[in-house]
């Protein structure tokens, strides 16, 4: 096999595996919602942090995609950028809550986590 074909096959396999690993946005949103529910209900610091980490991973994955409502829009369009900005806000809130949890401040972390709902409501109105 020539060198060019080997490189092409490797590039195709890498692209396919990256696409296969990325969840679709509805799955990511379901993951965020289920972890958020668990975060608000738990009294365990470890469970709280695990839930936040699950939310963060799903939000990062969702940032890579484009919601159905925006299909056909350019990735650099104002709407897609705003959608991604909403997830950036959520990730920042998650990080803030996680930092408090890492300090053992569960109740303060939970108060920050309750703010996620406002972010969700704002961006769901636009892009759900």
From TrEMBL:
Source organism of the structure: Yersinia nurmii
Textual note on the cofactor: Binds 1 heme b (iron(II)-protoporphyrin IX) group per molecule.
Annotated keywords: Heme, Iron, Metal-binding, Signal
Signal peptide location: 1-22
GO molecular function, one term: electron transfer activity
Binding-site residues, heme b: 29, 124
CC annotations in GO: periplasmic space
UniProt superkingdom: Bacteria
Name recorded for this polypeptide: Cytochrome
Pfam families noted in UniProt: Cytochrom_B562 (PF07361)
UniProt keyword annotation of Signal present: yes
Family: Belongs to the cytochrome b562 family.
């Amino acid at each position: 096999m020539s060198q060019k074909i080997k490189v092409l096959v490797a590039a195709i396999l890498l692209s396919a595996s990256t696409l296969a690993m990325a969840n679709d946005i509805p799955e990511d949103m379901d993951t965020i919602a289920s972890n958020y529910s668990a975060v608000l209900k738990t009294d365990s610091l470890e469970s709280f942090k695990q839930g936040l980490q699950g939310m963060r991973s799903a939000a990062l994955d969702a940032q890579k995609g484009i919601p159905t409502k925006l299909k056909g829009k350019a990735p650099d369009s104002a709407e897609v950028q705003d959608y991604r900005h909403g997830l950036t806000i959520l990730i920042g809130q998650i990080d803030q809550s996680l930092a408090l949890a890492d300090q053992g401040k569960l109740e303060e972390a939970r108060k920050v986590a309750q703010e996620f709902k406002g972010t969700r409501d704002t961006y769901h109105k636009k892009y759900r």
